[in-house]
Amino acid sequence: MDVRYAKEVRDDLLVSMAWLDERCEGLGDQLESEFYTAVSVVQERPFSFASDHTGYRPCRLRRFTAVLYYRIESDIIVVMGLFVGGRDESQLQDRGEP
Length: 98
Fold this sequence. Notes:
Layout: E1 2-5, H1 7-23, H2 27-44, E2 57-60, E3 66-73, E4 76-84
């Protein structure tokens, strides 16, 4: 399946990477790598993750307390957000189209 990204995802990733790099140089790059690994997993097995209370499908990153949220539209995976730590996931409800 093809993957598209909601416009907010880039900012989610960049802000999270910067926050982690402030704590330990290079950790942001590791988060980025884990993010794209999760996207690959979702792309290979999009129906392996059930929808949760947000209406999106969560895929937890292995190494970080982070979750990639996505939805499936026909034959396209739309990544809606990356949430790190205790961020309020209710913000997903306000996310628009990719």
